[in-house]
Structures are given as structure tokens and as C-alpha cells.
Specification:
Layout: H1 3-19, E1 28-33, E2 36-39, E3 55-58, H2 72-81, E4 87-91, H3 94-101, E5 122-123, H4 132-142, E6 147-150, E7 155-159, H5 162-185, H6 193-200, H7 203-221
Parallel strand pairs: 5-6
Antiparallel strand pairs: 1-2, 1-4, 2-3, 4-7, 6-7
Helix pairs in contact: 1-5, 1-7, 2-4, 3-5, 5-7
Length: 222
């Protein structure tokens, strides 16, 4: 995919994340193109326009250039640790953040929740991730998972493209709400390993459809 097309996806990803109420003044979306990382500038995602160009970083950079989000270290650390990841969404989903602070695990209680793994890991350091060392710790906590909740500090989701990363962030908050409601109602029953595997067999197709839906909803509201 060409850099211009990736930038278009980043803009749609940023606006979609804001439109869905997953960010306010903070958050960022990035994509890996070769050895370059394209990341949204440090501005509220809902205010970005076509005139706002993505900031370009070298994946192996040892310092952040001017005009880069201070938490871009998160993106660099994950790309270095995960060759399968080509896009990252960083947001502040409220219910997911609340459950992490309450030590309530987010497990797949509905089919699409399986696209977040058997249990969403939690990064237990609530401080801002503005240095390379803490970012490496976060990447270690993420491991091979598709999503991570940061205690007191939002969440990170990853994907093979921008659409997957953003769709997973939307799913993370949806799954968190379902988990919260299930805990309040009784005894949550997570999908079995076989049931999760059955849903993950359709993951690429269904994430693409969810991304198309979120984009369409965004365009309809603009």
C-alpha cells in the first residue's frame, strides 16, 4: 500500500476512533510502511483533516523528532517486538479502563470478543509511557496478544492494517461493556477454546466488515 493510501487510512482511523467516543484530546493511530512508522500528530484525533500529514519515524529511531506524540515509543517498541503488527491504535476506552482498575478480566463472552484473545492482558504501570524502557515493558506485557489495557491509562490494540487495529479498539470497549454487564448480572460464561477458535477462523473477514461499517457510519455523520 502506498504512503498516501496509508495516510488516508490513518485519518479515517483517527476520526472513527474519535467519533466512537474512544478518545478525547489524546490518542494516536500508526501504521508501518517498510521501515517507516507513520503516526498521527499530537492533536485531538477528532480535529484532524486532510491537511494534517502523518509524522514519519524510523522504526529503529533512538529519539523522537519534533512534532511527534510523546508516547510514540509505544508504537516503536511494539513494531520492533511484533513482526506481524502493521498498525496500532492507542485510545482511552472508558469501560475497559475501569475494569482494569477493578481487576475484572476482559474475556470473550460473545463471538467477536474472541478477536481480542482468551483474556486481554493488563499493563500494570499507570504512568505515561514516554520513554523507551517503559515502552519495552509494555510490549512485553502485550506479548502476542491483539489488545492490551493499561491500568489507569487507556488501551492499545494492534492489527495487520489500520482497519483491524481500530476495529479491535471498538471491540475492546464493546467486550468490556458486555463483561461489566455480565459480572453485574451473575456469573459470566466465557466462550470455550473451541468456540473461540471457530470465531477466529472468520476474524479477517469480520474485522474488515466491522471496519467498513465504522467508516460508513463516520461518513454518514460528516
Amino acid at each position: 500500500m502506498k504512503s498516501r493510501e496509508v495516510e488516508d487510512d490513518l485519518l479515517d482511523g483517527a476520526l472513527t476512533t474519535a467519533h466512537a467516543g474512544l478518545v478525547t484530546a489524546f490518542g494516536h493511530v500508526s501504521a508501518l510502511v517498510g521501515e517507516r512508522v507513520l503516526i498521527t500528530p499530537p492533536r485531538p484525533l477528532g480535529t484532524l483533516t486532510l491537511a494534517d500529514r502523518a509524522v514519519t519515524l524510523d522504526r529503529n529511531a533512538d529519539e523522537l523528532p519534533e512534532g511527534t506524540p510523546r508516547e510514540a515509543w509505544i508504537h516503536l517498541a511494539i513494531y520492533r517486538a511484533r513482526p506481524d503488527v502493521r498498525a496500532i491504535c492507542r485510545a482511552q476506552p472508558e469501560t475497559a479502563t475501569a475494569l482494569a482498575s477493578a481487576d475484572v478480566p476482559i474475556r470473550p463472552l460473545h463471538g467477536q470478543g474472541a478477536f481480542l484473545g482468551p483474556e486481554v492482558p493488563v499493563f500494570d504501570d499507570p504512568r505515561l509511557v514516554r520513554d523507551e524502557h517503559r515502552a519495552r515493558d509494555l510490549a512485553d506485557a502485550l506479548g502476542t496478544a491483539p489488545a492490551l489495557v493499561m491500568r489507569g491509562n487507556g488501551a492499545v490494540t494492534v492489527g495487520a492494517d489500520v482497519g483491524q487495529a481500530v476495529a479491535r479498539m471498538w471491540l475492546l470497549e464493546t467486550s468490556a461493556r458486555i463483561n461489566a454487564q455480565a459480572v453485574a448480572a451473575g456469573r459470566p460464561r466465557a466462550l470455550s477454546a473451541d468456540e473461540q477458535a471457530a470465531w477466529r477462523a472468520a476474524e479477517t473477514e469480520l474485522l474488515a466488515r466491522l471496519w467498513a461499517h465504522l467508516r460508513t457510519d463516520l461518513k454518514g455523520q460528516s
